[in-house]
Records
---
Amino acid sequence: MLGSQWESIVKFLDSLMSRLRGNHVPSFFIRKLVTQVFSFINIQLFNSLLLRRECCTFSNGEYVKSGLAELEKWIVNAKDEYAGTSWHELKYIRQAVGFLVIHQKRKKSLEEIKQDLCPALTVRQIYRISTMYFDDKYGTQSVSNDVVAQMREMVDKDNHNMPSNSFLLDDDLSIPFSTEDIDMAIPPIDPSDIALPPFLSDHPCARFLLQHQK
């Protein structure tokens, strides 16, 4: 049974999609907006995992993984026309959770982790997760000491160039489309093809609209 938090997220997405489509918002705008919502979800979940040790556990990994499965179902049902690249926007949290729930972490080399498990994550982010992780369900251990030592050496070399919290994702608050995108998304409209609402036809001040249509 999923927690109420995931249910609330899915209900919000359903409500958002219903209102946007009910108001005939072009699919282009819906796609951009939904994609940005999922980008925000990814950032919040991923940063919480790296900042709070209680989130960096095997049990929480299973919990978040189950929630991501529900979000994937929602994205599939929404289809690419409206969901766009939403699933791709969740890649950071998906890969981090995949690391949390995988067994036999100590047998994984750094290259295997970087290339197969967490290709989108930086070494600094992987190091943070590896050193904060603890298995509250089965009592298994994190990556080997050799892998931790490799990552620590790489992180130490970069410390003088990067701030201490550089493992966090930045929230992109920019508008997810340009004026050119808007121009391309909205088809040209000929005013003469649009019928004047009947209630306006009786108003003298609206006669110029009728003349324009003629």
---
Amino acid sequence: METSLVFFSQLNMCEPKEKTFFKLIHGSGKEETSKEAKIREKEKRNRLSLLLQKPEFHDDTPSSRSEHLAKKTRISPEEAMIWGESFDKLLSQKDGLETFTRFLKTEFSEENIEFWIACEDYKKSKDPQQIIRKAKAIYEKFIRNDAPQEVNLDFHTKEIITKSITQPTLHSFDAAQSRVYQLMEQDSYTRFLKSDIYLDLIEGRPQRPTNLRRRSRSFTYNEFQDVKSDVAIWL
């Protein structure tokens, strides 16, 4: 009888050890699995980091923009000098328009010239359905509140466009285009003529990498109420 009690007592003492051993083995497996998962996750992050460092994934970075600006060297100083005569002459020439657009990109204000170009294209529309489609696209991209590339317009001008967007005409954006033209002429164009991009061109120097500057404060049309711009190019 005593022998049986001792035997069962030994079994009871061994049981916790067996459970503990099993838990250690089982827990070790989980720990190993967790470590392997972390290693795999780290490897994925490293591969993604290396992938993102490739040039093709940085088309819109400051360095790539600067390199793109530096590639434009075919413009003669004589041609660039003409751009300094007036804002209208700058926009009327393809190279001038492209160079000014690249300058605005360095200031993160390219929505103004893109809106102006969109309006120029819009006025060439002939089909009624095309007019409606393009008008809505311009409104959604540049005019409505919180539009992805909203241009700076006074409330009255925006209100007129908003009310007429359901039945647009070829002249629906004339007032807005005129105001944006004036803002660029009085603000961005002045800085463009003093920029390294333009000065290097008129002096025949190779285009240097251009540092991006912080977005400048946008002027409102009310600050230029007395300015009368020639809008004949839109008629």
